[in-house]
Amino acid sequence: MSRILVVGASGTVGSELARLLTAQGEGVVKVTSRVPTAADQVQVDIVSRTGLHDAFEGVERAFLLSPPGHANQDELLVPLIDEARARGLKKVVLMSAMGANADDNAPLRKAEKQLEASGLPYNIIRPNWFMQNFNTFWIQGILQQGKIFLPVGTAKGSFIDARDIAAVAAKLLTSDSFANRDFDLTGPAALDHDAVAAILSRETGRAITFQDIPPAAMLDGLLTAGMPRAYAEFLVLILGFFKAGYSERTTDAVARILGRAPGSFEQYAKDYRAAWVG
Fold it and tell me: What sign results for the dihedral spanned by CA atoms 231, 45, 39, 26?
């Protein structure tokens, strides 16, 4: 049994990863930004680095990601990677994002390069856009107006189920078969948002449609919702990459690592139906 640190353990991927590792009998240390309420939690402020040193005490492996809301991901991740190197961890899995390696000056790529040069056994996983965004970040328009509002036109994305990302991370953390490799993770097929809306409509019995909006309208909406400007501008930027077609590609990485196909959007919609129907 390993002692595995999970950053983002209360998030979409991290919570499922912690569940999977625990079910496999691994010892999980869950990073939380709040005062711990359970023995397996450790409080860390990723921004100020408070609690960082203590979090790695006795840890053998770690799953790292940058918390949402920050565009300077390298400034948050590099100290985690450096601490992992100082501890001589047996494995580090870093969750980045598909396309991050297209620009060596991108914050996430800087963090990737720091891990690659660390001398630690590692994996980098770069998932495409999450299916779960439709029951979290994009849900308000669906619930209130029956619409998916995004500035992406007719472009397609090979959306991936976050549960598959967690399963991949669990496999990589507990196996050395794929050491020192990076993987772009996608779902099984690329869909445009009209197709997504049609699937959600069939599953929920509601009339859900997609409406393309200008990038400026997306930015205004994010800022009105209280998102920090730097991160809101970052989201609009990468949604522009989506519109340009960079999210359409599919890979076989999930199948190669897990020995099964990634979950379909139809199955995701069925499993999360309650999110849209109440």
Answer: positive
Domains contained in the chain, CATH given: 3-131+161-186+249-263 (3.40.50.720)
Q: How far apart (Å, rounded) are the C-alpha atoms in residues 209 and 199?
A: 10
For 157-201, what is each residue's pLDDT tens digit? 999 999 999 999 999 999 999 999 999 999 999 999 999 999 999
d(CA 59, CA 184): 27
Which residues, given as ranges, of the chain have pLDDT below 70? 278
The tens digit of pLDDT for each residue in 224-238 reads 999 999 999 999 999
The span from the CA of 155 to the CA of 72, in Å, is 27
Specify whether the CB–CB gap between 161 and 131 falls below 8 A. Answer: yes
- pLDDT for 2: 84
Tell me 160's DSSP state: B
Residues 6+ positions from 95 with CB-CB distance below 8 Å: 13, 63, 64, 65, 125, 126, 127, 165, 169
Cβ 31 vs Cβ 6: under 8 Å? yes
- Distance separating alpha carbons of residues 191 and 247, to the nearest angstrom: 10
For 29-66, give one letter per residue: b (16+ CB within 10 A) or e.
Answer: bbbbeeeeeeeebbebebeeeebbeebbeebbbbbbbb
Task: Using DSSP, state whether 40 is helix, strand or coil.
Answer: coil
Assigned token pair, 58: 């006795």
* Residues recorded for the chain: 278
**CA-based nearest residue to 26, from 7, 1, 5:** 1
Q: How many angstroms separate the CA atoms of 187 and 4, rounded? A: 26
